Amino acid sequence: MNELVGDVLMIVGASFVLLASVGILRMPDLFTRMQTATKAATLGITCILLAVAFLMQDWSVGLRATLAIMFFLLTAPVAAHMIGRAAYFVGVPLWSGTITDELRGHYDMRTHRLSAGPLDARPSATAKPSEN
């Protein structure tokens, strides 16, 4: 039974990793490629590591597989977010089919801070108050 579960998980994991690689090739811009690579590859690696844990049937291998899965689940989204944020800062172009850029007008490119409202609507810190 463990071999069957391990084999199925290995096939599912390899399929997700293959899907991630095809997604990286087919997606039109950096941001959608990152999303594909992060989600599908992490799910594929998780299934492969679970398959290894089932096939080895040793508690130490299972513990290492669990720790590796937790590492991937914690670091992959953070890394993708940081790469995407850096790409947005340096001006990597969005796909031409992108409908809205929700961050446009909300990022201060000097301080790299995100504001709740549009930056044009906020009073400037260096602006002098008007005299009546």
Describe this structure as you would to a colleague:
The protein has three helices and two strands. With 132 residues, the chain is mostly helical. Helix 1 runs antiparallel to helix 2 (30-56) and helix 2 (30-56) runs antiparallel to helix 3 (59-90). It has one domain. The chain has a two-stranded antiparallel ribbon.
Oligomer kind: single chain
Mean pLDDT: 82
What spatial order of strands do you see in the largest sheet? 1-2
| Largest sheet entry | 2 strands, antiparallel
User: What is the count of DSSP helices, taking H or I runs of 4+ residues?
Assistant: 3
Structural class: mainly alpha
How many beta strands in the DSSP annotation? 2
- The fraction of residues in strands falls at under 5%
Measure the end-to-end span. 83 Å
- Provide the succession of SSEs: HHHEE
Shape: elongated
Instruction: Compute the CA-based radius of gyration.
Output: 22 Å
Helix coverage percent of residues? 55-70%
Total domain count: 1
Low-confidence stretches: 125-132
